[in-house]
Amino acid sequence: MERLSFYHRSLAALTLPAISALAPASIPVSPADQETITQQQWTALRHNLVSITDFVTLNLRKGKVRS
After folding, report:
1. Cβ contact 10:62 at 8 Å
2. Cα–Cα distance list, 40 to 4, 6, 35, 43, 60 (Å)
3. How far apart are alpha carbons 16 and 62 in whole angstroms?
4. I need a surface site. Which of 24, 29, 37, 67 has the fewest CB within 10 A?
5. Which first-to-last residue range defines the signal peptide (predicted)?
6. Are 43 and 22 in contact (CB under 8 A)?
7. Are 22 and 45 in contact (CB under 8 A)?
8. What pLDDT, on a 0 to 100 scale, did the predictor assign at position 12?
């Protein structure tokens, strides 16, 4: 199996936090706390998705993306 390119490793490093941003809390919390946690998770997810989009767009413009 070949090693992933720097681009694909970087994209994975940005994608994994986005995927895990909506992981459920592992301890019981009150409904109010759960709402706060959910809002924070959505904010983190939006931030990570913007980072991924910016990274891909920048690399597409530079012509660095190869399959």
Report:
1. no
2. 32, 30, 9, 5, 30
3. 24
4. 67
5. 1-25
6. no
7. yes
8. 81
Tokens linked to 18:
């986005």
Dump pLDDT digits (tens) for 24-48: 667 788 889 888 988 888 888 888 8
Q: Alpha helices, DSSP H only, in the chain?
A: 6-20, 31-62
CA triplet 51, 19, 24: central angle to 5 degrees?
A: 130
| Chain centroid offset of residue 21 CA | 7
Amino acid identity for residue 61 in this structure: R
């809002």: which residue's tokens? Answer: 39
